[in-house]
Design brief:
The complex is a heterodimer of chains A (112) and B (116).
Chain A (H helix, E strand, L loop, with lengths): L4 E3 L2 E5 L4 E6 L6 E7 L6 E6 L5 E4 L2 E5 L5 E6 L8 E8 L8 E2 L3 E6 L1
Parallel strand pairs in A: 2-11
Antiparallel strand pairs in A: 1-3, 3-8, 4-5, 4-9, 6-7, 7-8, 9-10, 9-11
Chain B lengths: L4 E3 L2 E4 L5 E6 L6 E7 L5 E8 L2 E4 L8 E5 L5 E5 L8 E8 L10 E2 L3 E5 L1
Parallel strand pairs in B: 2-11
Antiparallel strand pairs in B: 1-3, 3-8, 4-5, 4-9, 5-6, 7-8, 9-10, 9-11
Classes of the chains: A mainly beta (112), B mainly beta (116).
Chain lengths: 112, 116
């Protein structure tokens, strides 16, 4: 099945650094979502974006819905140890009760 | 309240055997989804239920895969004649309309399937 292109694939940063990752698609989505997955757990929703151009924050996290509707980015400011995990973008064609198409994931590691 | 639960958490089976994976959604959630996550990959959609019917089963990889949902609640995903390429984590999610028609999908912890 289709997967969205997500980059970078992995990141190694020091605590306190800012993080940026993005996601691109060859087709349009009308909803963009960002999830975090910890080992042995299912993904947990971080931020949902519903309008092209929308910029939304959730604490230290900021995400934007690209104006072309084919991309999105996620920024994490002042990283802390609990930010470690795998981050996935996901797109949904319509605003409703439909399947999600996921990105390939960005693994975030914090170097002590 | 209780989240989405899945059982078993781990399943090891031999090639050619059938397996059943169970999902208990959040109580009252009308929609239920199955996804598959291979090692180091993102989630791949398999099937979606609205109530007991499946409007979208386009992600099922072959006719060895089937799923049902009963009573608008519990769902089982069945894989017949398992193959080694079926090894993956199978994740279930459920959702229901919230404010402004949002449908947040809440995921269970998954079932890790290993086919020897």
């Amino acid at each position: 099945g289709q997967q969205l292109n997500q980059s970078p694939q992995s990141m190694f940063i020091q605590e306190g650094e800012d993080v940026s990752m993005n996601c691109t698609s060859s087709s349009i989505f009308n909803t963009w979502l960002w999830y975090k997955q910890d080992p042995g757990e299912g993904p947990v929703l971080l931020i949902a974006l519903y309008k092209a151009g929308e910029l939304t924050s959730n604490g230290r996290l900021t995400a934007q819905f690209g104006i072309t509707r084919k991309d999105s980015f996620l920024n994490i400011s002042a990283s802390i140890p609990s930010d470690v995990g795998i981050y996935f973008c996901a797109g949904r064609l319509n605003f409703g009760n439909e399947k999600l198409t996921f990105g390939t994931g960005t693994r975030l590691t914090i170097i002590p | 309240g209780a989240g989405v639960s899945q059982s078993p958490s781990n399943k090891v089976t031999e090639k050619g055997k059938d397996v059943e994976l169970r999902c208990d959604p959040i109580s009252g959630h009308t929609a239920l989804y199955w996804y598959r996550q291979s090692l180091g990959q993102g989630l791949e959609f398999l099937i979606y239920f609205q109530g007991n019917s499946a409007p979208d089963k386009s992600g099922l990889p072959s006719d060895r895969f089937s799923a049902e949902r009963t009573g608008g609640s519990v769902s089982t995903l069945t894989i017949q004649r398992t193959q080694q390429e079926d090894s993956a984590v199978y994740l279930c999610a459920s959702s229901t309309p919230q404010g402004q028609g949002e449908y947040t999908q809440y995921f269970g912890p998954g079932t890790r399937l290993t086919v020897l």
